[in-house]
Design a protein that fits this description.
Helix content: 40-55%
Radius of gyration: 20 Å
Structural class: alpha+beta
Number of strands: 9
Oligomer: single chain
Low-confidence stretches: none
Strand order of the largest sheet: 4-5-7-6
Strand content: 15-25%
Order of helices and strands: HEHHEEHEHEEEEEHHH
Mean pLDDT: 94
Number of helices: 8
Largest sheet: 4 strands, mixed
Distance between the termini: 62 Å
Length: about 200
């Protein structure tokens, strides 16, 4: 086992992986078929700081992309809420060590290494309005705003004020209204329309 060789190999792969490795990725890269030998190599890489364990089955390098980690953990999720709004310049900066995504099914929260990933559970009919960008599914501005507003009415609070900090005037009004037709809660539809029209 040569830690320096393994470290160089990981550095070569890190850019393509955006610093995120599953256990299976590492088993393929290192080519170790014996579980005990593989575990020793991973431990050695962690000891020298080449790898850090985020949670069971997932490892990252010192520099890694949090959105990519979120997507890899839940491949059918999409980045939304304040994370997507900050990317679209509809709110000020979002926390750099926190990402929120949505997915069909049960909500999940993952934390470690000083970062947090929140996966909010949505109904299947609300899984729309997102596109892959460099391997990560991102909500468009209109869907991210709707996700924020929808969960605001369910009690979720954000680091920004939904009434004064979101640039509603930058939204595509036609797309926003078309998306709203997919929502079944009349109270929510009226609330979202009111905020758009008041902008």
């Amino acid at each position: 086992m040569n830690v320096a060789v393994d470290d160089r190999l990981l550095q070569t792969l890190a850019a393509a992986q955006r610093g995120v490795f599953s256990k299976a990725d590492l088993q393929t890269a290192l080519g170790d078929k014996h579980p005990a030998a593989f575990a020793r190599r991973i431990r050695a890489l962690c000891d020298v700081g080449a790898l850090r364990r985020f949670m069971r089955g997932w490892y990252v390098t010192a520099e890694f992309d949090l959105a990519t980690l979120s997507q890899r953990i839940a491949p059918r999720s999409y980045i939304s809420f304040g994370t997507a709004l900050a990317r679209e310049l509809l709110v000020g900066s979002a926390p750099q060590r926190h990402v929120m995504a949505a997915k069909v099914g049960v909500a999940r929260r993952y934390s470690g290494l000083g970062v947090e990933i929140v996966h909010v559970g949505i109904a299947p009919h609300l899984d729309f309005g997102h596109q892959p960008i460099d391997g990560v599914a991102w909500a468009d501005a209109e869907k991210a705003v709707l996700d924020v507003l929808y969960f605001h009415l369910r009690g979720r609070r954000y680091v920004f004020d939904i009434y004064s900090d979101i640039a509603f005037e930058k939204l595509d009004g036609d797309r926003f209204r078309a998306y709203l037709k997919r929502y079944r809660n009349p109270r929510f539809v009226a609330f979202a329309k009111g905020l758009l029209e008041g902008a």
